[in-house]
Amino acid sequence: MGLQWFLVFALFCVLGAIPALAEQPGNYTVIARRYRPVGFEDLIGQEHIASALKNAVSSGRIAHAYLFTGVRGVGKTSVARILARALNCVNGPTPDPCGKCEICQAITSGEDVDVLEIDGASNRGIDRIREIRSNVQYLPSRARFKIFIIDEVHMLTEEAFNALLKTLEEPPPHVKFFFATTDPQDIPITILSRCQRFNLAGIPQDKILEHLKLIVKKEKMKADEDALRLIARRAAGSMRDAQSLLDQLLAFSGGDLTTEAVRQLLGSADDERMGQIASAVLADNIPELLGLVEKCVSEGLPLVELLDQLIAYWRDLMAIHLMGEQAPGLTVGPSLKSKILEQVKGLTLDQVTAGMDLLAANRQKMKFSPLPRSLVEVALVRLARLRELIPLSQLAQAVGQGTLRLGSGSAPQAAPPPARPTPAMSYTATGPVKKNDLKTPESPSSEVPQGVISPASPRMRLALDRDSLVSVWAETLSKVGGLHERELRRGTPKLLGERAIVLSFGLSQE
User: Fold this and answer.
1) What is the phi/psi pair of residue 197, to 5°?
2) For residue 4, what pLDDT is reported?
3) 271-387 to CATH, choices 1.10.10.10, 1.20.1290.10, 1.10.287.3510, 1.20.272.10
């Protein structure tokens, strides 16, 4: 009798200590787990998926296999769990599972015996699939359906996919398969054709921002809106990444999150610095550009992050150029809005897109370069010179009209000394052509000045076709000569209509 009372007393002590243990720092549950969606209405940015699945549950049109695809942190596994609760809830099948019954709570915690979650990366062999095949014949223990949730299903081996194929095609009526993957292209087409596929899109930045505000409020913390906007931007459409960053930054800041603290931890330049770099680029102020790069290096700013911010900035320039200040998805903060609107006025769309191409090409090169600073500096210098490059269409017109000036040799004739110390040079398709090398005749003349290509031959005035393209292009190159010919030969001529040739250049040839 005494032993029984002792056991009861010990049990009460243990149960009373559980809440205290949960409050200890070592038992802290991260934000990403505590704020995980528990119902279809909690899915953020995936309203179309939630609506489709709710209608399927309401109408009883539940498929035997679903495939959820998307980048990390957009809710693939969460959708699978919510659908499992909707099917197995004691009040179901229902599009609104209660979340309070024993089955719903067991599925939420991952402990339900009838809902098995399998990591495809660590259970990718055929033996694990054989175990699943042997288990599907048994009825569920207490729930309505036996559900297999396989995360990162693309990691399964070819043999495992083949073993799963027959079971997936004709499973027992009490069995459902939910697959989640970030790489659906690695899944055999025979598997894809047997699943209903739902593509989860990246979550918009503004929706991530609103959810982060809600979390900060519930956590009884403080955070600047600009700081949360930076976190939402860095998350790149992943809610889990945003929540993990917020958790880390709140711990770093002690509960009062400032914009400066976020920039310091993330290693990103502030909006004012980005505006200064863009202004220096547009003003062709090379010394100031190099000085700004030096400041970024001295402050410990990762140059890869700087280049990513520049690409995002130029994307904003393009969006504003096309759609105005109400363009969606802008990354610049309100403090920089007026400046970027002013900068757009001095740029053409071709200059903006060429700048994005240049930055993206250097970002790719940076992965393999031991000198990232040199790549950033070269990219900014070339970016500053973009406004003085000759469009390829203008060069082709000059060649056709015979107005491309050449010197006595093969090199272009020197232009009059410009006000700038160094004449602008082309960097891409046109080769090193000076802007002043193109001259439109003021009046027609029967005589051709020395050193100027004669007008196009009658053959070039005729409509082009595939047969004449090679000979016409060869004739054009021979008249250009010198460095221009060498650069133009790097392109591939293609017909664009009957009287136009387009040159195609690869990034590696830039």
Assistant:
1) -105, 135
2) 54
3) 1.20.272.10
Q: Are 124 and 160 in contact (CB under 8 A)?
A: yes
> Which H or E element spans position 327?
none
Percentage of the chain exceeding pLDDT 90: 32
d(CA 507, CA 510): 5
> How far apart are alpha carbons 228 and 480 in whole angstroms?
56
Other CB atoms within 10 Å distance of the CB of residue 414: 12
Burial 125-153 (b: 16+ CB within 10 A, else e): ebebbeebeeeeeeebeebbbbbbbbbbb
Average pLDDT over residues 399-428: 48
**How much is the pTM?**
0.67
Question: Measuring CA to CA, which residue among 408, 438, 439 is closest to residue 426?
Answer: 438
Angstrom CA distances, 481 to 268, 392, 487, stand at 47, 17, 10
Domain-by-domain residue ranges, the chain? Answer: 35-199, 205-266, 271-387, 390-413+426-441+448-509
What is the number of residues in the chain? 510
Q: Which CATH number fits domain 205-266: 2.60.120.380, 1.10.8.60, 3.30.1300.10, 2.40.37.20?
A: 1.10.8.60
Superfamily of domain 35-199: P-loop containing nucleotide triphosphate hydrolases (3.40.50.300)
pLDDT at 97 (0 to 100): 92
